[in-house]
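Chapter review: from sequence to fold.
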Amino acid sequence: SLGAIYVVIAGIIFFFLIYRSDTVKDALAALYSALKPILTGVVIAFLINPLVRLFEKAILKVRTLMKKEEPTAIEKKSTRSISIFIALVLMISAIILIFNLVIPQVIASIQGVIAEFPGYVDTAIGEIQSFADKNHTVSEGFLTLTQEITQDLNHWLTTDLADRISSIATVLASGLMGVLGLIYNLLVGIILSVYLLSGKERFLGSFKKASYALLDDSKAEFFIKTMKKVNYIFSSAILGKILDSTIIGVLCFIVTGVLGIFFSAIA
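The token string follows.
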């Protein structure tokens, strides 16, 4: 009887999700929008946690070698705070460095295309005109097509563009709000990540208690063991990727610098 009741309840829920798909979609979108700062903080905490552990172990090891005694609870807490600060500074510095390297190159590429575009157009028009001069039929068709394109362009500039200015302004405003929302989510996420990393042992303990409260002991142990393995695999992959990218970046910087000096000396 209990199994039949579960089947009926599951059928009702499935029918509601299908029949009210738009409502469910809007509710999930609103829930995701509300939880986005929290999810951002969790992702940031998970990404920089390997760095925090690395710095924390290094600082505590150096401190133990210097003082020849085990660190106190206050020293461990201060070491955790310093490690979180260093990891956040490195993350923000890396993001700023990437933007400083990528955005100027993108702008320079766009400016180069804009500067060369009139030359491309003149070359294309010259080739078309040269071909049209050799064929009067093509020349007349090309002239007619040019007039039609010019009339359509003038009509678009005087009517359609004016009508769409409001929609363009709306898109720009929504884009600005999106950027502000992204900055807000990042700020809240960074603050939340600091809070999560500062008391991660306490949160992990609460997670274990909840697992044992909701599941059987064997299932809870299997679930916790699986989560530990997942965390170890992803953390190792993230830390390895960071070290790999750092080594490749340093080598590329050195090689390109040497090549730049070499070619400038030749020139």
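Two observations follow directly from the output. The two ends are 88 Å apart (CA to CA). Helices lie at 2-19, 21-67, 73-133, 136-198, 200-214, 217-266.
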